[in-house]
Predict the 3D structure of the following.
Amino acid sequence: MPGCLAANRPKMTSTRASPLTAGDARQPRVGGLATRLKIRTYEEEWREQPVGATFGRRKRLGRRKDLREGEPMKRRVLVAIFLVTALSGALAPEAGASQNVAQITVRQFCQTQDGFAVYLAVHGTGFPTNTEGTFRVGSDLTFPVATDERGDVETSLGFGLSGLDDPLLGQSKDVTVEVGGVAVTQTVTLTCDPAANAPVSKEECRVEVFRFFFDFLGFPFVNQGDCVAYVATGSTNPPG
């Protein structure tokens, strides 16, 4: 029986006490004689094997010994890998969470023909997709909005003016877009400068609500590319 020694064989040094006693009914028997269960070390088994004929046996024992001695280091490596994996999982964003940060851009446009007005055009990005929300200006003006499949939202609001000296101009307004519990606020000071109606960046040309006011207030671009060309040439390439 593996791990057991017959009574007539030399005693081997045990690495731990046998769990069985001489009077234990479960004690193994070899050749009809009771023996104590001995746990031999790999070193003892190695020394017992003769050189040559049992070289394969000695080689297998040596490999088992090497593996046994390497177990503490393997355990430390496995623990380190587990901790790194757990930490990475804790720091990683939840599945399905949006990687974008919600933000809004507020653009002012000024009308001086056929009446005076200042318009606030808003473009928001990074909000929950296909979700309804609200657009607020100040504390008393609230309007419904909704995002598209990209999480973008576009809206606008106009204030009629009595002229360029209207007391409304110069006042600060908090512009807030809130969608799906995500709210972003930007504070703007109302101004009305017709010279500021032109696009100043290629990014503005990509926003539909901005292009609407470019066209409405003196810059009728044929398409988005026409708007981009106007910006790229420093306004030397006129709309159309």
